[in-house]
Amino acid sequence: MASQLRPVSLMVLLSIFSFIAQAAAVTVPLSSTFKYVNEGEFGDYIVEYGANYRVLDPFNSPFQLCFYNTTPNEFTLALRMGTVRSTSTMRWVWEANRGNPVGENATLTFGEDGNLVLADADGRIAWQTNTANKGVVHFQVQPNGNMVLQDVKGYFIWQSFDHPTDTLLVGQSLRAGGAARLVSRFSEKQNSNGPYSLVMEPKRLAIYYMAPSSTKPKLYYTSDRFSVKKGRLQYVTFQSEPVTEEGFSYHLSLEFSTGVNAILATPKYNSTLSFLRLGVDGNVKVYTYNDKVDIGAWETPETHLPKLQTHLPCKLNISLNVPSSPLCSTSTHFSLSCQEPSAAKIADPIKLLPSSPSQLLSLTLCSSIYLTVASAFYHHRPHRMQSSTPMERSVFFSLFLLFSLSIVAQSTVPSNSTFKKVNTGEWAEAISEYSSDFRALDISASVFQVCFYNTTPNAFTLAIRMGTRRSPAVRRFVWEANRGNPVGEDATLTFGEDGNLILADADGRVAWQTNTADKGVVGLQMLPNGNMVLHDSKGNFIWQSFDYPTDTLLVGQSLRVGGVTRLVSRASDKKNTNGAYSLVLEPTRIAMYYKSPNSPKPYIYYASDLFSIPRGRLQYVRLVNSANHLSLQFSTGGGPELSKPSFNSTLSFLRLGVDGNLRVYSFNDQETSASWEETFTLFSKDVGIWESECQLPEKCGKFGLCENSQCVGCPLPNGHKNWTKSCEAVKVTVCNKNFHYYKLEGVDHFMSKYGVGNGPVKEIDCEKKCSSDCKCSGYFYNTKTSMCWIAYDLQTLTKVANTAHVGYIKVPNHH
């Protein structure tokens, strides 16, 4: 037994040591570190609690990191919610150091070790994330208000969503083993813990009041509606969920881990920009923000919560008799006096619905998945581990590992969250991309919904579409499961108790699956950012669609080393297979390639210093929204800014199109017409710092001369003709010597601008290379640099002023 366990245990220990060593070796790129000082002028806008504030750079609309104070020289580091375009009050939705303020000239530092530290001017540490040397490489405020520290794979090492104060944003939870309560602020002026708390208990949510003279909190609200009869609560999440499949309106609800929803409100605005607050007065309210208006941005929607009785400090001696009402089972005597009030058990009319499979748990945009070893056990029981022998420790660790794996294997999806959806029924009536037909499934969030769609009969793709029923604008497909491997009518999408998500044809043929069987999955959900996730009982992502882009990157989505490193275009609007174009993450740059019909390898048709790094190696490139700008963010820091949409830039995506162009589209979910805006085009008629359309390989079809983004000529052996789509070079059909070349001066092939070429070589040697290759259609040469490019497909040639750039086109001798 011992001899069998020793090698396994040694391997496990070596793996752990290797993991720890690798994490310690990873550092934050110097360009991503920062040190902010709390100094300077205060902001001009109205903020909650009548506070003064100073904004910091970290921002993702409508959330921004700030220092604020309500009493002199006592500052809190906090996230505020609101935009400068609105005159409405900006509200504080998360705080780092409540009850432990810092002063003027305090600093917020994010160092190379990955620790985020708030310190007073004298160096006293008031708050920190305790993430030094844990593999952190990146800091970000996400579009949902979650401030995160990430490793090289994008997993969360730390997130503000794990540390709520008095507020839950959409997607944020109270959970067993973490923060299980909200605690009110003491007063608008005094930012310390107040007397009220909303607590997640094993069987219920309850609200307590801690009176000054009391030794323990008094319960002042609970309800059967906030309780569970079976099981124990592992989490309660504040969530936004569509009322209809088309996402016409949304409920705000509390979702319980046991599979029950308590609907709170149906706001008029975008419900994803909402929060639940335990107020200074002990009441619980929901606030919803409209980031598209200048005034009246906040809505406090009518909720199904009762008007809670609140308990003030003993200042008044007033008694109120509350008569019987639909909210109270009996008359209640409530006294604002020195007497302690008793708990009122209120039968509130909160509607409860079973969770749909897609609405079990609202998660953050990404989730931390990192190795947790038995260090806590060693720490809590040092005497036991010190007294044991190495063999005993080895045996224990192996058993511990096997026990952990068995727990994962035993985790199953609750039966009320499993589903089997069949591709059958009527088509939806809305307009969708590629002139496709589609059927919507009841897996949705915000503007995103899972669908079956087809562009050719009986060849369906499972996809996520973007758009709303309120807008007649086209719905666009931003992720696909089974490109190139379609399913037919009556195909099924099944989410079973084992946690595997399977797309299969009616005959049982599996077309696509997540391969997550028996890996601890307990739920599936569509997140408000368009990420479809399978998660475990702790909310960690076991699988996510963001890891498998096709031709599109949504905000927050990445290309990354060790995962998907390229976008691949669609073949055509009708044909949904991989196309000819790819955008590729390389060690020091992003480059774009075209795979022509005859070339043995792809041609490069775009690269740029703007898409490159001078040192280091790229681990990922991510599409991010910062201060209403959309940019590509490099793992080494920095990256090119692409656009500044006039709409909500978080609802945007980057697309590698059928034509090889790279575009950004932004969606306005508040607009009923003209919802889409094309905010960036890489190859454009207005070149600027980007590229001309002449650089697109197929701009002029099979053959053509391009100038100023227009196809201006068909350069045939007997002279230039006006370009038409039928323009085509004369082919050498027999592999022999019966051909010659005709010369074109002042032209570039699309590959010669960014391709390295061969050389320096003599022009005659360049010709020989083409002549000896039967597939060569022509060659291009720079007489000044003596560089040579062999072309297997001619396609688009660009007219240039420099006559040193020449091309030679191969034609049969009889022409």
TrEMBL record:
- Supply the InterPro entries for this chain: Bulb-type_lectin_dom, Bulb-type_lectin_dom_sf, G-type_lectin_kinases/EP1-like
Superkingdom in the source lineage:
Eukaryota
Q: Mind listing the UniProt keywords for this protein, alphabetically?
A: Disulfide bond, Glycoprotein, Signal
The record's PROSITE patterns line, in alphabetical order, gives:
BULB_LECTIN (PS50927)
Identify the stretch annotated as signal peptide in this record. Answer: 1-25
SUPFAM superfamilies per record: alpha-D-mannose-specific plant lectins
**Bulb-type lectin domain boundaries:** 31-162, 428-547
Question: Could you identify this protein by its name?
Answer: Bulb-type lectin domain-containing protein
Origin species: Salix dunnii
User: Which taxonomic lineage is given here?
Assistant: Eukaryota, Viridiplantae, Streptophyta, Embryophyta, Tracheophyta
